[in-house]
Amino acid sequence: MRRMSLVTCSVLVAATLGFAPAAAWAAPSGGGGGGATPPQTSTSPKKLKCKKGQVSRLMTVNGVKKRKCAKPTAGLLPDGELFQQGNALALEGEYDWALDVLELVADQNQPDVLNMQGYSHRKAGRLDVAIGFYRKALALNPDFVRAREYLGEGYAAAGRIDLAQAELGEIAARCGTGCEEYKALAKAIVAATN
Q1: pLDDT digits (tens, 9 = 90+) for 34-87
Q2: Spatial separation of the C-alpha atoms in residues 10 and 147, rounded to whole Å
Q3: pLDDT tens for residues 120-135?
Q4: How far is residue 87's CA from residue 92's CA, in Å, rounded to a whole number?
Q5: Which DSSP string corresponds to 33-99?
Q6: Which of 21, 89, 108, 151 could in theory staple to 98 by disulfide, Cβ–Cβ 3.0 to 4.6 A?
Q7: What is the C-alpha to C-alpha distance for residues 143 and 75, in angstroms, rounded to an integer?
């Protein structure tokens, strides 16, 4: 039987339970993000089989830490955990549920939070609302290339190729033509023009 190091085991347990230190979420990231984007392996309420509208909460029961579902309320979870769960829900297509969770983040001026609120509104078909969130995120951090990518994708889907191209140019100026955000937006523009 192969042995794993204590660090490897800790990382696997943390990924399985959806832990990520709040400091990791709040720390500035390289590449122009609003903050460090949490790992995509976080446990979302949907994956935990919570009822729609609930969040996953870590609790200690008889000395054992377990995830339980709970109705989201202000202060129930730290901002980083709320963001992680809202982010995961948005990426799973649960846009309105994601928005409910993201609205509980105490600091609504986090570019990452604003970006995912914009993403959720855009994917739910509310592009005009989404644009407001993206612009607010970019006012706080003009170098936030993920927000520029998502804004450009919204413009492309709406047929505003000129505005999508402008965001593509902004991304190129910040991280070059080889970064993930540039490639994703370029692909969305090509798809919208075909």
Answers
A1: 544 443 334 666 565 777 777 777 667 778 777 777 777 777 788 998 999 999
A2: 32
A3: 999 999 999 999 999 9
A4: 9
A5: -SSPPPPTTS--TTTTTPPTT-EEEEEEETTEEEEEEE---TTSS-HHHHHHHHHHHHHTT-HHHHH
A6: 89
A7: 30
Q: Considering the chain, tell me which residue range(s) the CATH 1.25.40.10 domain(s) occupy.
A: 108-194
Residue 150 structure tokens: 């998502």
Binned at pLDDT 50, 70 and 90, residue 7 comes out as very low
- Indicate the pTM of the whole model: 0.71
pLDDT in tens, 18-45: 333 333 333 333 344 454 444 333 466 6
Helices 145-157 and 161-175: crossing angle, nearest 10°? Answer: 160
Query: Under the phi-then-psi rule, with left for phi > 0, alpha for psi from -120 to 50, and beta for the rest, what region is 75?
Result: left
Q: Any bridge partners for residue 181, and if so which?
A: none
Q: Where are the alpha helices (DSSP H) in the chain?
A: 6-17, 22-26, 79-91, 95-102, 111-123, 127-140, 145-157, 161-175, 180-193
Q: Does domain 108-194 have CATH number 1.20.1250.20?
A: no
Are 112 and 33 in contact, with CB atoms under 8 Å apart?
yes
Helix (H, G, I), strand (E, B) or coil at 125: coil
